[in-house]
Amino acid sequence: xxxxxxxxxxxxxxxxxxxxxxxxxxxxxxxxxxxxxxxxxxxxxxxxxxxxxxxxxxxxxxxxxxxxxxxxxxxxxxxxxxxxxxxxxxxxxxxxxxxxxxxxxxxxxxxxxxxxxxxxxxxxxxxxxxxxxxxxxxxxxxxxxxxxxxxxxxxxxxxxxxxxxxxxxxxxxxxxxxxxxxxxxxxxxxxxxxxxxxxxxxxxxxxxxxxxxxxxxxxxxxxxxxxxxxxxxxxxxxxxxxxxxxxxxxxxxxxxxxxxxxxxxxxxxxxxxxxxxxxxxxxxxxxxxxxxxxxxxxxxxxxxxxx
Length: 307
What we know:
By secondary structure, this protein is of the alpha/beta class. About 35% of the residues lie in helices and about 15% in strands. An 8-stranded parallel beta sheet has the order 4-1-5-10-9-6-7-8, with helices on both faces. It has a two-stranded antiparallel sheet with strand order 2-3.
């Protein structure tokens, strides 16, 4: 009698040649992936801690064939697992995130981090700045994330905290900042830091302002990092976030910026954050996050491997 059972979650499609993303390859170049299920800094809707596993599943289900980019996926994906989050303990958890990030940078051509709320980037970028190193970060976000709060935690302060900790060794560009969504004092902080800010409305006539910001980051050298906060996208495309954005960027606009940046900056690391599966609609935000990561990682690996 033939075996009636298969592994849990197995595909119903009986195509033995149906390849999926090269997960945990035994050899060859690979990107190192780490999940960071932390959302204790989210002041609004909790649930981003559930996103790493959701995004990982959709990323893993993709096929490596990318005819639009002219090649198959250029590297494997080495899954290092999830950071051991200590619920409510920011000090212990942040220390573990930094150590996990060090391992990811040491293990992969590119380090990929699946958040979690945006505060994780404060720690996943840290190893690139250790020992006096310099780095550039491109952030796609509807917010400046340069707040200071009188008490408690917020994912809206990580970029300010990171810049204060490392002085002028961090160059910053934020693309997609929304109108009517940020306190006015944050624009002054951004100017003081010399950050390149591209408001979403400046992109209505074309993407040139965003691409010029990428060019300026590239000219300054140092290691590069790309952070994709899913709330920079219009709420019609990304409803499953802590802070939905009406009239945000479209996925096509974001994809063009990300592909250009990945090729130009040759990023050492990238992340996707602020997906909240508990309020998502049909997993559309998680699916989109996985696809944006795949495209960005494809170009980043090609750039770092020399094509």
